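Subject: for your reference before the review

Hello V.,

The reviewers asked for a structural picture of the protein, and I figured it would be easier to keep everything in one thread rather than splitting it across files. Below is the amino acid sequence we used in the manuscript, unchanged from the supplementary table.
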Amino acid sequence: MTEDPQDEVDRLIAAWRSERPDLDVEPLQVLSRVSRLAKHLDRARRASFAEHNLEPWEFDVLTALRRAGRPYELSPGALLKATLVTSGTMTNRIDRLAQAGLVRRRPDPEDRRGVLVSLTDTGLARVDAAFADLLRREHALLASLGPTDQRTLSSLLRTLLAPFDT
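And here is what came back from the structure prediction:
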């Protein structure tokens, strides 16, 4: 029978159990690993985005538009909801993406005071390439888990996250 591999969290937990045996450090088993994994994921994402000359915030806005489907267009308010930033921040982001030629604004035909933001052809090509590269990297991060384990982990993480997303 093979033992599970040891990781940095195992060493951290052992040290805390030695130093503070009065505390239940069991949550660290999961949450410290999630935290460490998030850091590795963030590094992979940033590397992927950098290869496509995108900042993480640019990717967030562009993918929100891409997920909207043709014509890849949303109101600034819908982009706010999708990216969880303030209206001032979103205005700045749209301005910068428009200057880079990745999005364009046009008047909203349904609301004379409103505008719609849409992907340009350049924006569409850039976000599609970055997303494909990101998925390649994320598959590599999960390579040590088989499909069943990935689905189980996904389900367990969903159970933890769902209360925060309501």
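For the response letter, the relevant points are probably these. Residues 31-165 form a domain with the Arc Repressor Mutant, subunit A fold (CATH 1.10.10.10). The chain has a mean pLDDT of 93.

Happy to draft the paragraph if you're swamped.

O.
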